[in-house]
Each structure stands twice: as C-alpha cells, then as structure tokens.
TrEMBL record:
One of its GO terms (molecular function) is metal ion binding. Residues 5-52 form the Helix-turn-helix domain. This is Peptidase M20 dimerisation domain-containing protein. The keyword Hydrolase applies. InterPro entries: Bact_exopeptidase_dim_dom, HTH_17, Peptidase_M20, Peptidase_M20_dimer, Peptidase_M20A. Keywords: Hydrolase, Metal-binding. Residues 241-349 form the Peptidase M20 dimerisation domain. Pfam families: HTH_17, M20_dimer, Peptidase_M20. SUPFAM superfamilies: Bacterial exopeptidase dimerisation domain, Zn-dependent exopeptidases. It comes from Candidatus Woesebacteria bacterium RIFCSPLOWO2_01_FULL_39_25.
Amino acid sequence: MENKYTLDDISKRLKVSTRTLLREIKRGKLKSQRVGRRHLVSEVEIESYLGKGRDEDYLEKTISMFLKDVKVEMISTLQKMVSRPSVASEVGQEAKLANLIKHKFDKWGIRSNVYEEGSEVAVRASYGLADDGILLDSPLDTLPPGDLVKWTYPPFDGVIRKGKMYGRGTADCKAGIVAMMYTILFFRKFFDEEKLRIEVVFDGGEQDGSFAGMKLVLKRGLPVTAGIVGYAGDMKDILVGARGYHRYCFTIHGEAVHTGSRYKPGINAISKMTKFINEVESYEFPKPLGSLFSFGGRLTFSKIEGGRAINMVPDSCSAWLDVRTTPEISKDRLDEDLAKIIDKIKVRDKNFKIDVQYMVGQQAYMVNPKGKIVELIGQSCQVVLNRKMYLTASGPAHVGNLLNESNIPTVVFGPMGENVHSYDEYIEISSIPKVVEIYIRTIIKYFDIDSNSF
C-alpha cells in the first residue's frame, strides 16, 4: 500500500507552512485525498508537485513556495525595523537595530555576530563553507526624519497605503536588509553548506561617509569575491560604479578690527572666502571617458561659518567643500588642482592666508561591465522582471567604493522605492519578494549549483 502523508508531515519535509500547502491544494497544484478533516498526499503526488527529476521545475517551485510562505513575514519584519529608528546621529540606535537583526538570525539557526567599537557597529551573518563567498550588504543607519509635519504618515510607523510602506529607512535601506535576510534564510533551508558561501553584512557609518561599520568587518577578514548592495531604486538598472567623494574644510584667516575704525581697515576673512569660493566653482572637471559617468563631476560648498559680531571685521571664515569625482580624477590630482587655485590667489593677494584640511573620501570606481557578478545579476533580473537591465553608475558614493578598494567588485540593486533622504520615503512592497528571487537566482548561478545540492 502506498504511503500517504499529512500536511504536517509534508510541511516539515518541505520546510514550508501548512497554510502554504492548503493554498496550493485549493489552487489545484497539489493533489490530496480528503479523509475526514485531514488531507493526505501520496509520495507520487508530492514528487509530481515538486517536479522531482526535473531540476529546473523543482527549483522554480521551491523558490515560489518559499516566497509565498514568507511574504507576510517579510512585511512584518520590515515594519518592525522601521519602528526601530536607526538615525546615524543618535548614539545607540544602530546597535539596537543590529541586535534585533541578530536575534532573528539566531532564531533561524544562522551564524551571526554584532561588532561594536565605540559608536561603530555592524552585524554579520554567514552561511556556507566554501573558501570564497558572495557579499550581501545594506546600511543600518538612516538620516533623521526632519520636520515631522511634512510627513503624510508618521516616519516610524511603517504605514501601508496602496501597496507602499512609508517611513524613514524603508527605501534606505531596511527593505534591502529584509530582502537579504530572507535570501540567506532560503539557502539555510534548502541548500547544503558545502556548495557555497554567503556573507551578509549590515553596517553603520554609511550616512556620514565613514563606512565605519564595514571597516570593522573588513579588518576581521571578508572572504568574498563579489558583492551586492541593496539600495532601493527603480529596478530598471544595475549600478556598476559610483562617483568618488572628497570633503575638505578651508579656513581663511584675516585681521579683526572694529568696523567703525577710522584708520585700520582690517582683513575681512569672509570677503576673501567669497573670492576663493568663486575661483573654486570655476573649476572644470575632465570629460568622462565612458557613458556610465556622463553626468560628470560636481563640487559644492555646502556650509560656511565666519564672523563673531556685527561690528567686527571677521578674522576667520571656514567653508566646507564636497567634491564628487569620476574615475578620471584621483584625489592626488584634485589636491594638486586645488593647490594651484590657492597659489594663483596668493600671487594676487599677499594677505591671503588659508588652511586646508582633508576630511574624508573615497575614489570613484567602476566594475567590469562584463564581469561575472554583473552578467549573472543581469540574467536573473531578466528572468524575474522580464526585461533587459541598463548598466549605469551612481551619482552618490556608497560603501561599494570602499569594497572596490578592497578588491571586491560590487554592484547595486535593491527593491523599488523613492524619496530617499526626503519626506514620505517609501518602498513598493511587491518589489521585495522579486528582489529576493533575483538574489537567490544570482547566488545559485554564481556558485554553479543545482537542485541536487538541496
């Protein structure tokens, strides 16, 4: 007599909920025999449902079944994360989120650690024993919500309206975190550790450009050969590079006197700073060599401070400069060009005294557009989204710049969302399972594994 199994038996065997199995029975995809209030399913029907012996069908059904099973849970997890603010400027908030995530990994039986040094924090999870792995990364920290009155919905409630979840950090980058968490869970459930290695890192220090959390991880060793960063976007392109950024503080020194002095004019540091800013803003960036960086470089004086009283000639003025560079211009070249501008002014003005402080920065980068990680994630996007993806570069720098310097070619692709760093930030909820599937397919192809590895 042929063995028959209850839904509880099948649920344990396939690692899905009985709710998902009942849904599949209702849709006619899984055939069962009703005995009283119980559903019994034969081995033949189980194998027919899974498509055993047909690797592609088996894999397709496994992915589909997993995504259906965790869909509601992913939304709930994202809401919980949004309700836990992780504002970069608020001490301790990133660490609380990191520990919340670690608790989830512990519950799933996935190895994880939280690294903390002072205010620097990162949470890392690993699955797989291969020598070389693939990295999934998203930042923990967010910007402050700003003026709460300008939000349609409270920024830390995770309100859902018309398929969108609103809140600070939904798009940057907690939806990416959720997608990556459930990607590693899929492999924990269905794949043998011997065949692959996935390193998941969620790190602080992204918003201020220090990438301090990722640096904590890198100094401990990160055995990966490629990476994916989960920033939200429009899901129409894959970012394969990013402009660099370099930040400076310039301080000009003058001579303070009373503004009403009859004989001493003083040296107005603010006036001299104005002339310096005009000179710097006339700087011409080199023309980008490729189409990926067609938007070119940019420099912005974003903050200025000077003067102590309305009736005193200011003897000091400081200005902060943010420079965005394409791969054609290195930091050394930028330093040289700024020095030439300063020397030119000094020739004309013997009273021009300026201090230059380099604050922080990363070089621009671009990975090989025909590299393995680029081609594989592009193929996976085409399968899931049914369209060809465009390759482009990011205007803002990100942690990929640092990873590239560590010889980890990194691309950016994440869920669909908008209003990053603005009011009414949101994520399209339906995009999260699609991104999980794209990550899953990319990793399977990256390690060249099939359903026999289940």
